[in-house]
Design brief:
This protein is α/β, with parallel strands linked by helices and 337 residues long. The chain folds into two domains: 245 residues, TIM Barrel; 79 residues, Four Helix Bundle (Hemerythrin (Met), subunit A). The protein has 15 helices and eight strands. The chain has an eight-stranded parallel β-sheet. Helix 4 links the parallel strand 3 and strand 4. Helix 4 runs parallel beside helix 6 and helix 14 packs antiparallel against helix 15. It starts with 6 loop residues before the first strand and ends in an 11-residue tail after the last helix. 42% of the residues are buried. It binds flavin mononucleotide (FMN). The site of flavin mononucleotide has 23 residues, from strand 2 and helix 10.
Length: 337
């Protein structure tokens, strides 16, 4: 069985919520999925059930934590270690002001001693049989010379026995750039990640950042152990239909986007019965169809009607009518039912 980390989807606040993850599972059974980041403080002081809610169909599933206090992170790990997550990942890459104010995320790349204390506390709390503790990092931050500081940082992770490291292959600029800009600027530097893999061949190195086609992801596997895909997986979910055949050598759980939606429907209808609004489920579907006739009307129908209080699955059916009727002549196997 190939390891799930060969292809993973990135943790993305507000995007990779539990409903998206259940939908993603209708497209790939084998990719490793990540939650949105949850702070250790929220896990320790907040509503644990709500913050960690997930459906077993989402497995294998990694929980991402944010934090910089070893005691609090350890306590958070103790609270979640038996909840079904196969991995607990520490966020060392997020540049947002809110995260910086809490002195965690990418800001921690400047403080390897603290990171080491955090991760060791998390490993101890997870125990030998608990979820694997991993780190998601940047190449560096601000004016760090990443050619020097990154190998030193990885050396620290290696020393404390972090087996798998996810590297978002660009630096984070903490002053002056928005989180969105920090996902475009400065340029990606894949060769530095390849060099890290050569220098630490016994560690599992996962490349993240700017991967936007299945072929590009496949090519990376000649240099690194796995890929993590964020925006492209979310904005072009049809790409997830390639994941099981291409990376795991088995067929996809659905033969088309239509079939995937059929699989998603019972989950959505259960949620509607529990009183959740349709828009919570359909907001993840707007990127389903690109460049096929009717895609615009599909998106418009969802965004104009899914928020209505009585909206049910018939909204999705109506939106799909635009695709089915006008894409009949499009020879895209993903559109075949
Ligand atoms: C909307 C959004 C939210 C994100 N939230 C997180 C997060 O909670 N934790 C994290 O480590 N990275 C977060 N990221 C960064 C992604 O995990 C990923 O590292 C980044 O988007 C680069 O990968 P990509 O080019 O494949 O999108 C977020 C990215 C986006 C677009």
């Amino acid at each position: 069985m190939k390891p799930a980390y060969l292809y993973s989807t990135a943790p993305m606040m507000d995007w990779t919520d539990r409903h998206w993850r259940v939908f993603a599972r209708t497209l790939t059974r084998h990719a490793l999925l990540y939650t949105e980041m949850v702070t250790a403080a929220a896990i320790v002081h907040g509503n644990l059930d709500y913050l960690t809610a997930h459906d077993p169909s989402e497995y294998p599933l990694a929980l991402q934590l944010g934090g910089s206090n070893p005691t609090e992170l350890a306590e958070a790990v103790r609270r979640v270690r038996t909840l079904g997550f196969c991995e607990i990942n520490l966020n060392l890459g997020c540049p947002s002001d809110r995260v910086q104010a809490g002195s965690f995320g990418a800001a921690l790349m400047a403080d390897p001693n603290r990171v080491s204390a955090c991760l060791m506390a998390m490993q101890e709390a997870a125990g030998a049989t608990g979820p694997e503790i991993t780190a998601k990092i940047r190449l560096g931050i601000d004016d760090q010379n990443e050619e020097d500081t990154l190998p030193a940082f990885i050396q620290m992770l290696d020393h404390i026995g972090i087996q798998r490291i996810i590297i978002h292959a660009r630096k984070a600029i903490l002053g002056g750039l928005s989180p969105k800009q920090n996902r475009e600027i400065p340029p990606l530097n894949y060769p530095l990640v390849y060099q890290i893999k050569k220098q630490f061949p016994h560690r599992t190195i996962i490349l993240n950042g700017g991967l936007n086609s299945t072929q590009q992801c496949q090519e990376q596997l000649a240099q690194v152990d796995g890929v993590m895909v964020g925006r492209h997986a979310y904005q072009h979910p049809a790409s997830l239909l390639d994941v099981d055949p291409v990376f795991f050598g088995v067929s996809a759980p659905a033969s088309s986007m239509f079939a995937a939606l059929d699989h998603y429907r019972p989950y959505v209808e259960r949620g509607l019965k529990e009183g959740l609004p349709l828009k919570h489920f359909t907001r993840h579907l707007v990127g389903l169809f690109h460049e096929v006739p009717g895609a615009r009307l599909f998106r418009r129908t969802l965004s104009e009607t899914a928020h209505r209080p009585d909206a049910d699955w018939s909204v999705v059916d109506s939106a799909l009518n635009y695709i089915q009727s006008s894409a009949r002549d499009v020879h895209d196997p993903r559109l075949a039912t």
